[in-house]
Amino acid sequence: MSDDKKLARASLDSLYRIFTVPEAPDSTLGRIDQSLSQDLAGFLQQHIVASERDLADIESDFDSAAIPEHPTFVSEQIQFVMDKLVAQSVHISAPSFVGHMASALPYFMLPLSRIMMALNQNLVKVETSKAFTPMERQVVGMIHKLVYDNDEAFYEHWMHDRAHALGSFCSGGTIANLTALWAARNNALPPGGDFRGLGQDGLLAGMQHHGYQGLAILVSERGHYSLGKAADILGIGRRSLIAIPTDNRNKVRTDLLASKCDELKRQNIRVMAIVGIAGASETGSVDPLDTMADIAAERGIHFHVDSAWGGPTLFSSTHRHLLKGIERADSVTLDAHKQLYVPMGAGIAVFRDPKTLTSVEHHAEYIIRKGSKDLGSHTVEGSRPGMAILVHSGLHIIGRQGYELLIDQGIEKARAFAQMIRESDDFELVSEPELNILTYRYVPADIAQALAQAPESLQRAVNEELNKATKRIQKIQRGLGKSFVSRTRLNPALYDGDDIIVFRAVLANPLTNTEILSDLLEEQRQIAATRDDVKTILGLARACFRSC
Amino acid sequence: MSDDKKLARASLDSLYRIFTVPEAPDSTLGRIDQSLSQDLAGFLQQHIVASERDLADIESDFDSAAIPEHPTFVSEQIQFVMDKLVAQSVHISAPSFVGHMASALPYFMLPLSRIMMALNQNLVKVETSKAFTPMERQVVGMIHKLVYDNDEAFYEHWMHDRAHALGSFCSGGTIANLTALWAARNNALPPGGDFRGLGQDGLLAGMQHHGYQGLAILVSERGHYSLGKAADILGIGRRSLIAIPTDNRNKVRTDLLASKCDELKRQNIRVMAIVGIAGASETGSVDPLDTMADIAAERGIHFHVDSAWGGPTLFSSTHRHLLKGIERADSVTLDAHKQLYVPMGAGIAVFRDPKTLTSVEHHAEYIIRKGSKDLGSHTVEGSRPGMAILVHSGLHIIGRQGYELLIDQGIEKARAFAQMIRESDDFELVSEPELNILTYRYVPADIAQALAQAPESLQRAVNEELNKATKRIQKIQRGLGKSFVSRTRLNPALYDGDDIIVFRAVLANPLTNTEILSDLLEEQRQIAATRDDVKTILGLARACFRSC
To answer: Family, per the entry (chains A, B) (predicted)?
Structure first.
C-alpha cells in the first residue's frame, strides 16, 4: 500500500500511519501538500467565481447523506475538493469583490495558520494551551489598550490576573456582542437579599426582585442583526431591542435616544444596555459615541460599542477622532477577521472594568477550576482554537503604522469611489462613506431629474421600480463573476424614509484600485443598457411619470 | 527591500506586496513556508512539553499591552512564534497525553486546513461561500443520518431545503448545546393569542402567557458545564438546571428523573428539556437514553442528547447499541473536533424534526434574507469559517469503517488500561470505562485494606488525604512533561457520595499503546514513592487509622 494512506482494507496498521506525520517530504502525502500550496497560489489570483454553475447544480455534488462505508484515497478526496469546492467557491480575496466585509489576507497568515492547526491547542484551559494562554491574554490586553489606552501599571496588574479577564476572545462579533450583553444583563439585575443574581436565579426572579416591568436594549436602526439574536437568546425578546431612528448621515438621533431612555424609565422598564455603532454593517457610519456615553453615564446604563468593523480605525492618527467616546464604553466588540486581516473566525469583546465579566464567570471540576488561569471561565464558548496567534502576528508584522496605512487607504479609496459616483450622471450616492463603506444606486439622469421634482406618492412608485432594477443588476453582476457588490435596503431621509434598495460597497481590500471600481460601475451601466429585464423595469419607472 | 515584506518604512507599496501570494516558491516567504512544514513535522513527534518553564515565567514573554508602532520582519515574528509559543505549547497530540479529549490528527487535515484558510470562505451566506454552503448542508445531513438514519427521500427533501435546517454547524459543543436549548426554550413557550413567541416577546411575557411559575432543564449530575452556562445565558438561571443523581455506573437515575419531572409539574414549573449524556466528560458514561426518551415523550418534553464526545460511537457495529435511544432525541450535539479527529473548533447540533430550528430563525436585509439558502439564518454565530470541509474530508477519507476502527481500538485500550489498574495493588479503578474514558487513583495496598474496613467517618478523613495526594501526583507528573492525565472530583457510590479526587484518562489517540499506559502508571508510582510532599500526605492518611 502506498503512503497515500488509503484505508481501503481498513486496518489498525494503516490507521496508525494516517495519524503519523510523513517523514519524507517526497512521500505521496508530502508531495500533495507541497503541490497544493502552488496550485492555490495560482488559483487565488483568478476571478471571483471560477465557474458559472448555479447553486442547484452545485448541490448535486453534495446530495447524499450517506456516510461512505469504505475509505477513499487522500489524493481522490483532495481532487474532489479542488474540483467541486475550491473551483466553486467565492474568491472573496479578489480586488473586485467589494460587496462584503472581506479582503485578501496577508500571505504570512497561511504558514502561521498551519502552525496553529498543527499544534491544535485548546484555549479553554492552560493544560491544553500553555503559552497560548498568556499569548491570548496579551492580545486581549493589546486590543484593550487600543480602545482604552490605560497606563502600563493597569495592564501589569490585570492582563494576566488569575481571577479576572480584560475581555473575551471568541469566534466572531456575534459571540462578542452576546458576551457583552450577557454580562450587561447580569449586572443590570445584581444579586441582593434572597436574590443570588441573574446567573443563578434567572431572569424572572431578577425582575421580581428588582421590581422591573421589563428590560430593554437601545440601538440605532442600523444595529447589526446579531443584537436581535442576542436579545432573543438572552430571553429579553427581540421587541425589547428598541431601534432608535437615525439622522440623514445614518447616525443615531441622540435626542430620541435620551427621551426613549426616560420614557422607558417612567414605564419601569430597565434599559440594560445602550449600543453605539462604530462602522455600521450597511453604511459604515459611526454613532456620536461621546454623546451616547453621556446619556448612558447620566442614567447608570451599560454602554456597549459594536465596533466589529470600525474598531481598527483607532490605528489611524487621521481618522481615530471619528470614534471619540469609545474609550468611555463599558464594553467594545472588535472583529479581528475583518479589519485586522486575519482569517475567519476571530472576534474580541473587551471590557473597561476588569470586574464586568465577573457576573458571567463559571467553573467546573475537571477544567477552569477556581484559581486557575484558564481562559474558559469567562467565555461563551468552551473549547476554542488558538486564533489569537494570528492576531498577535498581525499586530507585530504589520504594526500600528501598517494598520494605519490600511485604514487610511480604505477610507481614501471609498471617498474616491464616492466622487466617481457623484460625478457620473447615472448613479446616485445614497450614503456618504464616513469610513470605507458606501451605498449607491443606478438612476439614469432623466429619471433622477423627474424624481427630484415629483410629488411624494409618485416618488414612492418610481423608487419601487428602481428597487427592482437595483436588485436585478446586482444579481446579474454577481452571476457574471467579474465584480461583486452586495445590496441592502435603507430608508434614507432623502426619500422621506421610503425603502430604498442600494448597492453596498466595502473598500477594505488593499489590492482594490480605482480602475477596478470604475470598471465595476461600467459593468453595471452595461447591464442596465443591455439586459431586457432591467430595461423593462426602467421603462416602467419612466411610465410612472407619464401616467401622472 | 527583500520579499520578507518588512514594512519598516511602511509604505503602500510594501503593503500591497504583503497581501500578494509569492509567485516564486524560492522567495524568502516561500522558503519560510516550506521549512516550517518540516520543522513542525519533527517538532510534533517530541515530548508533551518541550520545556519546563512555568507559566509565570512564560508570561514574561507576553507582558506588554503596547501595540508595536513599527512593523516586524515576518521571519522575526515566525522565530518568536517558534521559540516562545510552539516550544512552550502543549503537545496534545503526543501518545502519552491521555488527560483530555485530544488526540493526534490525521496528517491530511493539515493541507486541507490550508485550503480552508486560503479560501477564507464565510459560511454565514451563499454570497461568500457558494459551494461551501451545500457542502456544509451535506455534512450536517450526514451527521443527521448517522444519528437518525432516515431514508433517502427524507434527505432529498430536507437537506438543501431553503427554509429549514437539519442542524447547525458551529465552533463547538458548547454552542451546539446552546443552540439546541435555545430552540427547546422557544418551542416550550410557543406563540398564541397576543403572545408572539419567546423570541419576539421574551421570557417574562412567555411565562405570563402560559402561566408557568418557572422553567427547568434536567440532566444528571455528570452533565457538562456548558449546560449551566446555557441556563445562565438563556435567562433560566443555573439553579433551574436540576442535577439528577447517578447510579454506581455514573448513569442518571431514571426513577428520580421521572419523579422530578412530575414534582416540577405539580409546582407548575415547565421542564423545557431533559438532557441525556452519551459520553460524560468526566467518566465517559452513557445515560439510559431509551428510557429517558420514554420519560420525555410521555410528558411532551424536548429530549436533547449531549453526545459531544460519545456520538461517533455510532460508527461502531460493536458498540453503537450503547447509545440506543439517541435516535429518539429531538436534538443531538456532536463535536467534530473530538472523535471525528478534525482540528478545533467544529461542533454540530442536529435536530430530528427539520422544523425545530424555526423557532430561532432570523433574517437581515443585507444577508440571510428570507428565501435565501444562507446558513446564517439558523445559527447562534454569524460569520463562520468553512470547517465543514475538514469533516467532509474525514468522513470520506477515513470512512465509516475507519471511524469504527478508531472507536473500537479506543474502547479496547481503555479496557486494557482498566485491567492493568485492577491488577495492580496500588491503584484503584474508580469508574469503569463504558466508552474510552476511565478514572482511578493511587491507593497503596495497606491503605486500601484499612480503608475497606474503616467506619464511614474515618473513610472520609482518609479520603481527604488521598485527595491531596492525587492532586499532588497529577501536578508533579504534568510538570515533568512526559505523560499527562487530568484530574477531577467525583462522588462515587463506592464511598457513600464522599468527594473523591481522581485521575482521568481519555484513550482516543490511536498512537497510544499499553506500554505507554504502563509507563504512565509506573511514573505515578515513582512520584508517590520518591516525592517528600506526597510521602508526607500518605503518611497522614496512615496516621488517620492509627489515631482511631
So the answer is: Belongs to the group II decarboxylase family.
Q: Do A402 and B25 touch (CB under 8 A)?
A: no
Residue-level pLDDT at B547: 75
DSSP 8-state code for residue B454: S
Residues in contact with B257: Cβ distance below 8 Å, sequence separation at least 6, in sequence order: B218, B244, B274, B292, B295
Residue contact A134–B61, C-beta within 8 A: yes
Q: Which residues pair with B486 in a beta bridge?
A: B504
Query: Do B237 and A77 lie within an 8 Å CB cutoff?
Result: no
Q: Note the pLDDT of residue A24.
A: 61
Q: Are strands A303-306 and A331-335 parallel, antiparallel or unpaired?
A: parallel
Cβ-Cβ contacts under 8 Å, A337 against chain B: 383
Nearest-CA distance A310 → chain B (Å): 16
Fold for domain A122-397?
A: Aspartate Aminotransferase; domain 2 (3.40.640)
In the numeric block, the cell 435603507 is attached to A490
Fold topology of A403-546: Aspartate Aminotransferase, domain 1 (3.90.1150)
* Contact in structure between B493 and B247 (CB atoms under 8 Å): yes
Contacts of A63 in chain B (CB under 8 A): 138, 156, 159-160
How far is it, in rounded angstroms, from Cα A518 to Cα B530? 77
Percent of chain A with pLDDT over 90: 79
Burial label, B268 (beta-carbon count in 10 A; 0-12, 13-18, 19+):
exposed
Instruction: Indicate yes or no: CB of A202 within 8 angstroms of CB of B107.
Output: no
How does residue B546 score in pLDDT terms, banded at 50, 70 and 90?
Answer: confident
> Is the predicted pLDDT of residue A1 greater than 50, yes or no?
no
CB pair distance less than 8 Å for B282 and A365? yes
E strand or H helix at A306, and its extent? strand A303-306
The arithmetic mean of pLDDT across residues A83-96, rounded, is 90
What ipTM was estimated for this complex? Answer: 0.95
C-alpha cell at A152: 502600563
Chain B contacts of A132, Cβ < 8 Å? 85, 89
Set of cell numbers at residue B32: 519560510
Q: Residue A460, Cβ neighbours under 10 Å: how many?
A: 15
Residue among A199, A282, A345 minimizing CB distance to B232: A199
Task: For residue range A486-500, list pLDDT tens digits in order.
Answer: 999 998 877 777 899
CB contact under 8 Å between A120 and B344, yes or no, is yes
pLDDT tens-digit map of B25-49: 566 666 777 666 666 655 555 555 5
Distances (CA, A) of B535 to A82, B119, B532: 60, 56, 5
Residue of B51, B138, B232, B267 to mutate, testing the A interface (most A Cβ within 10 Å of its Cβ): B232
**B395 confidence band (pLDDT: 50, 70, 90):** very high
Query: Environment class of residue B414 by beta-carbon count within 10 Å: exposed (0-12), middle (13-18) or buried (19+)?
Result: buried
Task: Label residue B213 exposed, middle or buried (CB < 10 Å: 0-12, 13-18, 19+).
Answer: exposed
Supply the CATH classification number for the domain B172-368: 3.40.640.10
| Cβ neighbours of residue B447 closer than 8 Å, sequence gap 6 or more | B462, B466, B538, B541, B542
DSSP string, B40-92: HHHHTTS-SBS----HHHHHGGG---PPPSS---HHHHHHHIIIIIITTSB-T
pLDDT 10s digits, A424-464: 999 999 999 999 999 999 999 999 999 999 998 899 999 99
Three-state SS at A484: strand
Average pLDDT over residues B504-512: 95
Of residues B132, B231, B409, nearest to A85 (C-beta) = B132
Residue A170, SS3 per DSSP: strand
Which residues face B440 on adjacent strands? B429, B503
Q: Is the pLDDT of residue B53 over 90?
A: no
Cα–Cα distances (Å) from B300 to A288, A485, B212, B271, B296, in that order, read: 50, 48, 15, 9, 6
A209 or A25: whose pLDDT is higher?
A209
Residue of B nearest to A233 (CA): B234
